[in-house]
Design a protein that fits this description.
Radius of gyration: 20 Å
Strand content: over 45%
Structural class: mainly beta
Number of domains: 1
CATH topology: Immunoglobulin-like
CATH class: Mainly Beta
Strand order of the largest sheet: 2-1-7-13-12
Number of helices: 1
Helix content: 10-25%
Shape: globular
Largest sheet: 5 strands, antiparallel
Order of helices and strands: HEEEEEEEEEEEEEEE
Number of strands: 15
């Protein structure tokens, strides 16, 4: 009887550990949407940065990045709070790994302008969306955003954009 109980406890802990691991990303620096209802991860649209540079008349220009298509194939319904999960190198602040930004839709493209140039000045600032970081376990974190409007968004790392749509 004791051996059956011990075996059941071991099996239970193995299944429990396996279930917990299914909601954590496999790769570093790749955020994924965490569907709270289904307790599943949804991969975001991954893309390299496509650069954009456009003259706007004689004395103005802008530069930034874009993704083709006006909407991401990854659709998330509008909610008060959205949770994403990211796996990063231990000891690293998640806010230093990814920025969170809203795209502007122009001519069937999702555009993110980083620089605006006028004849007399240059502006290289852009508005990041603030998110809350909540530790799941060492190296794994929830990135929590609240009250997003419908639109196109992305997390930007040093090499990739991870995009999605809020409907």
């Amino acid at each position: 009887m004791k051996s059956i109980t011990v075996t059941l406890i071991i099996l239970s802990s193995i299944f429990n550990a396996k279930a917990q691991n299914t909601l954590l990303p496999e790769f570093n620096d790749k955020p994924a949407y965490y569907n709270v209802k289904d307790k599943k991860l949804v991969e975001l649209e991954k893309s390299q940065y496509n650069t954009l540079a456009k003259a706007k008349g004689l004395f103005k220009a802008e530069a930034g990045f874009f993704l083709n298509e006006s909407s991401s194939p990854v659709k998330i319904s509008k909610q008060t709070e959205l949770k994403f999960i990211i796996k990063i190198t231990q000891g690293t602040d998640p806010t230093s790994v990814v920025d969170f930004v809203k795209f502007e839709v122009r001519d069937n493209k999702r555009v993110f302008i980083t620089t605006k140039v006028k004849a007399t000045s240059t502006s290289t600032s852009f508005e990041k969306i603030i998110y809350v970081v909540e530790k799941i376990k060492e190296g794994n974190y929830f990135l929590i955003v609240k009250n997003l409007d419908k639109g196109e968004y992305f997390f930007g790392s040093s090499e990739f954009m991870f995009a999605f749509s809020i409907e």
